[in-house]
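FORM 12-B: Structure-to-Sequence Request
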């Protein structure tokens, strides 16, 4: 076929057109289509925002030389955490990554006050949670931290609004005083039009957003999310990270996420890697 020597703006297109195809027009068309498709795919990739530096913000979580052992039997002991130390600053979104058994979920449980360390100290929002009584720990878990889990744990017989209200029921607020924080939390996760729906009437992504609304209804200082995108498709997972970012901007919430997904972790401000109960390194 005759070469087209007209001036094209893209040198790659000029290169494709200038090749000899021995009359095989379809090959030329296929190569042009392939190249144009690759350009479209590149244009659809979201821009990567630079990591934000929170080192000048107050420290909200300080873990100092924390160790934790699981006693399976008297002689069979699993050293889940070994002298772990880290600091998380107010407003940060931090991802904990590592293989199963690396200790990341154990560390999150300790920070959340679900367990107590064998050694070391954990300070959250200026409270040494290792020194709290059981009653004080209950208040800490209800007001200072919010929990988001992989399996949602929504009550199937309650609609979304009532599910979000559950943490408020443990306080002493009057029912009429609960309306504003419930509406605020549901609006923050863009589920106002689903407030009267029960969990079975929601998609997986909507159920996870409902679980986030429940976790933030008490305006916690720290949001702990354990594999929050594990049961979601990639788009819903990306949406979840956007919601965490919006919550941070709206309420000043600090977010700690346990995840296996590098794409999800890549949207955090900082990634902390764990292996065999120890922190190995971290990356912004």
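FORM 12-B RESPONSE
SEQUENCE OUT:
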């Amino acid at each position: 076929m005759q070469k087209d020597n007209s001036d094209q703006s893209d040198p790659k297109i000029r290169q494709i057109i200038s090749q000899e195809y021995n009359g095989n027009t379809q090959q030329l068309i296929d190569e042009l289509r392939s190249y144009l498709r690759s350009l479209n795919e590149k244009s659809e990739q979201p821009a990567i925002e630079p990591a934000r530096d929170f080192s000048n913000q107050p420290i909200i979580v300080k873990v100092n030389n924390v160790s934790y052992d699981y006693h399976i039997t008297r002689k069979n002991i699993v050293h889940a955490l070994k002298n772990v130390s880290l600091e998380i600053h107010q407003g940060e979104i931090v991802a904990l990554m590592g293989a199963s058994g690396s200790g990341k979920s154990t560390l999150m449980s300790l920070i959340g006050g679900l367990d107590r360390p064998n050694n070391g100290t954990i300070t959250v929002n200026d409270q040494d949670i290792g020194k709290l009584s059981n009653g004080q720990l209950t208040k800490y878990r209800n007001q200072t931290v919010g929990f988001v889990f992989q399996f949602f744990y929504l009550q199937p017989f309650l609609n979304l609004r009532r599910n979000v209200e559950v943490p408020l029921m443990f306080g002493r607020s009057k029912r009429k005083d609960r309306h504003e924080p419930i509406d605020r939390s549901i609006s923050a996760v863009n589920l106002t039009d689903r407030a009267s729906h029960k969990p079975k009437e929601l998609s997986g992504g909507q159920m996870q957003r409902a679980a986030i609304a429940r976790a933030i209804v008490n305006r916690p200082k720290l949001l702990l999310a354990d594999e929050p995108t594990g049961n979601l498709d990639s788009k819903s997972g990306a949406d979840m990270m956007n919601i965490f970012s919006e919550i941070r901007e709206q309420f000043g919430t600090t977010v700690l996420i346990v995840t296996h997904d590098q794409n999800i972790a890549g949207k955090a401000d900082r990634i902390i890697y764990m292996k065999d109960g120890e922190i190995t390194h971290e990356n912004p």
